[in-house]
Description:
The structure is a single chain. The protein is an alpha+beta fold and 187 residues long. 20% of the residues lie in helices and 36% in strands. The protein is built from 4 helices and 12 strands. It has helices at 17-28, 76-82, 95-102, 176-185; strands at 33-34, 36-40, 48-52, 56-59, 64-70, 84-89, 114-116, 122-124, 129-141, 144-156, 164-166, 169-171. The strands form 3 sheets. A 7-stranded antiparallel sheet has the order 3-2-6-9-10-5-4. The two termini are 34 Å apart.
Amino acid sequence: MHSADGTKPPSPRDPNPSDDRRRFREVLGNFPTSVVAITAGGPGERPEGMIVGSFTSVSLDPPLVAFLADRSSSTFPRIRAAGRYCVNALAADQEAVCRSMAARGADRFAGLDWQPSPLGNPVLDGVVAWVDCVIEDVLEIGDHYLAVGRVHDLRVQSAKTPLLFFRGGYGDYFSPTAMVLDRLVGW
């Protein structure tokens, strides 16, 4: 394989797996990700929930979205079995909700208020937006599952800024002033 100028790219170095894993996380930690709660179940069913930082849109026609779930997750198989899920975009002031939904072995919905989505999935109170989906496909990719959902319904719930994960921490790294300035300057 050659680059556009005809030169051969450098050979990849002989990787040390433990160094590569640490470096991989360190470098990719510099890419901020939104924090979403994936929920399933609802009235008459035990609600299920998990936190992911890998939600993305996939297609406009048909409307598809996706998230990644670790293959070791004990929650994802129950969400998958439900055949549907709701993506809740957490707001910057919902770090406590995030930590509650990420806790192992606890009732993740204890103390949380929610309403059923059109498909019956929990929509958490106070979120920025939500997307209600039917599972279209699940693919095994590396140490994760890629869960693709066909969008059934979606709504913006509030004008709050989203909760972000960046360099190992949670926060709200985009101020409304900076966003307005970005639009004016064209960045």
